[in-house]
Amino acid sequence: MGDCEKMKFGQMELEIPVLQGGMGVGVSLSGLAGAVSLAGGLGVISAAQIGFRNPNFAKSPIDTNLSVLKEEILKAKKISQGKPVGVNIMVVTRRYEDYVKAAVEAGADVIVSGAGLPMDLPRLTVGYPVLLAPIVSGKRALQVLLAYWKKHYNRKPDLVIVEGPKAGGHLGFSREELETVDGAEFDRRVSEILEITKKEAIPVFVGGGVYERKDLDHYRKLGADGVQIATRFVTTFECDAHENYKMAYIEAKEEDVVIVKSPVGMPGRAIRNAFLERVEKGERFLEDGCKQCITTCNPKETPYCITKALINAVNGKVEEGLLFCGSNVYRANRMESVSQIMEEFRI
Ligand SMILES: Cc1cc2nc3c(=O)[nH]c(=O)nc-3n(C[C@H](O)[C@H](O)[C@H](O)COP(=O)(O)O)c2cc1C
Fold first, then answer.
1. How far is the CA of 230 from the centre of ligand 1 (A)?
2. In the prediction, which pLDDT does 172 show?
3. Which of 60, 157, 170, 297 has its CA at a distance of 20 to 30 angstroms from the CA of residue 116?
4. Do the beta carbons of residue 136 and residue 158 sit within 8 Å?
């Protein structure tokens, strides 16, 4: 690989210090994840409702998801030519443990887990050569996790992802924090986390609003090892979402980005569209049967079924769906290839 600097995490080596953020539902499947891994980073499949295109999904969503997850991991590894591929599984996923087991059985190299603290991840992956990467948004969460893993499993994370308030999808910040945590405050929080991780020799990747090379340089200067990027990868030819989804990103302006209350119980960032305007006016969008996605949703109270809204979006019905995005979405102005983006981040 010429004279580029390779990074080693346990048994895994990355040529380019970029993790692609997992994007559900169906935005990061084997196509995107495989391409990112092939290009030298770590591609990450999102396990969230991954079986949504399978005819059995409506009848038995979780079992269908588990078998499609395995298929997608194998497909991604084929595309990446055997290079490591990760899987993102949110802690609030119903039957989280079964998703983790399915992922490691199919040969996932890294499990990335946020939207909650993955307290029992070491127990669920015993005996598998898999790296564990929790996502945190502050020092306190990391300290709790490190202490618990040490006491119960005598192990530490193989890498830690710190996600800031500019990220897409569900956010680990309250609405107030989203307004008060600016770039300088987030940098301060990253530095606090780095003080802890340096002592433990745990590599750190920072995500949320990372869009170009200077963002990587900025976080590396602070002491991080790499970055996690999601939004920038949506407008690639390889991204698994429908073309209309990508076009919605290209057309979005800064003022179109809104913070929504999601049925998951965390704030989320999305592009304002007809669907969100109807939800705002009090319309409800429910499904015939609950698709068993997350533990925190109460189907009786939720204003909309988030599974259905995300499936509509990824299938191209963008005015009837929820278009999650990071705060930098308005910067997308053309389609790119994954390898073009990745080369920008080679160090
Ligand atoms: C469309 C979309 C879907 C996402 N879905 C998930 C998800 O299912 N699980 C998760 O942990 N993070 C999810 N995220 C967050 C990303 O993995 C990532 O950490 C974050 O968006 C990084 O910020 P960036 O988009 O500014 O690069 C999603 C982000 C986007 C844009």
1. 6
2. 87
3. 60
4. no
What 8-state DSSP symbol labels residue 31? H
Pocket of ligand 1, beta carbon within 6 A? 21-24, 27, 46, 48, 88, 90, 114-115, 163, 166-169, 207-210, 228-231, 324-326, 328
How much distance in Å is there from the Cα of 3 to the middle of ligand 1?
32
Residue bearing the CA closest to ligand 1, atom 5: 23
Give the pLDDT confidence score for residue 299 in this predicted structure.
85
Q: List pLDDT tens digits, range 125-149.
A: 999 999 999 999 999 999 999 999 9
Cα 49 to ligand 1 centre (Å): 15
Q: Contact, 132 vs 111, CB < 8 A?
A: yes
Beta bridge partners of 304: 285
Measure the CA dihedral 45/169/58/263, to 10°: 150
Beta strand segments in the chain, E: 7-9, 12-14, 18-20, 43-46, 85-88, 110-113, 131-136, 160-163, 169-170, 204-207, 226-229, 257-261, 267-271
Q: Is the pLDDT of residue 4 over 70?
A: no
* Ligand 1 mean position, distance from CA 114 (Å): 10
pLDDT bracket for residue 92 (50, 70, 90): very high
Q: What is the pTM of this model?
A: 0.97
Q: Where in the chain is the domain with CATH 3.20.20.70?
A: 7-241+333-344
Q: Could you tell which of 28, 32, 46, 341 is best to mutate to test the pocket of ligand 1, judged by most ligand atoms within 8 Å of the CB?
A: 46
Fold of 7-241+333-344: TIM Barrel (3.20.20)
CA 249, 258, 171: angle at the middle one, nearest 5? 95
Residue nearest to atom 21 of ligand 1 (CA): 168
Q: Are 316 and 236 in contact (CB under 8 A)?
A: no
Distance in Å, CA 28 to ligand 1 centroid: 10
